[in-house]
Amino acid sequence: MEVGAMLLNPPGPLPADLLPHWPYARALDQALTGRGIPPGAVRVERAYGAPETAVLLVLGWDASRCAGQGGIRLGWSDDSGWSHALIRPVGSAVSRGPLAALRRVFAAPEAVADVAHALVTGGFGDYARQWHEQWDGARDVREGIGAFRQAVGQRTAPKSSDGRSAPALRCAYE
Fold first, then answer.
1. How many domains does the chain have?
2. Pair 157, 166: CB distance under 8 Å
3. Is residue 35 part of a domain?
4. pTM given for the model
5. Is 69 contained in some domain?
6. 21 with 9: CB under 8 angstroms?
7. 86 CB-near residues (< 8 Å, 6+ apart)
8. Which key words are in the record (predicted)?
């Protein structure tokens, strides 16, 4: 199987310092690419809103990259961890709920790659194992998310290192 290039910069117009969870996205992409299943779509999201700012990642594999008739979508939020959905051939998603096999919010990227591999290759029953390992960079990213949320709590949006304001954001890489 030919492995695609890894993500080097955030998809979209904003620099990585405006995405506190970008280091986790890169580590995940590296593990998935190393496993031979780079996601075909990556969304790195955050949205300003009350009461808290959402910090999200969405990784997707369309039907052409999966063993079944549809695709797979893995979603991550810094407050609830991992979830997954099946993507029907017509494009609609069927939520499968929390991904209980990944027991940590910041699951180790290798664990995410193992679970994603089982899902993408059609081995849905093969991910009965539970992974308890946490990613080594979790503490730093949590601190970054905390600082980001503090900045969002101010009257103005946070600014990047070059002084640009950070609007509500959705980055997509496909």
1. 1
2. yes
3. yes
4. 0.76
5. yes
6. no
7. 68, 70, 71, 72, 73, 93, 94, 96
8. Plasmid
Does the structure show a pLDDT above 90 at 31? Answer: yes
Greatest Cα-to-Cα distance within the chain, rounded to the nearest angstrom: 49
User: Which structure tokens are listed for 129?
Assistant: 């194992």
Q: Dig out the tokens for 77 from the structure.
A: 């939020």
Name the nearest CA neighbour of 158 among 48, 81, 54: 48
Read out DSSP for 81-123?
Answer: EEEEEEEPTTS-EEEEEE-TTB-STTB-HHHHHHHHHHHHTT-
Alpha carbon 144 to chain centroid distance?
Answer: 16
Give the contacts of 160 (CB within 8 A, at least 6 positions apart).
14, 15, 17, 18, 166
Over residues 135-148, the pLDDT tens digits come to 999 999 999 988 88
Asked if residue 40 is part of any domain, the answer here is yes
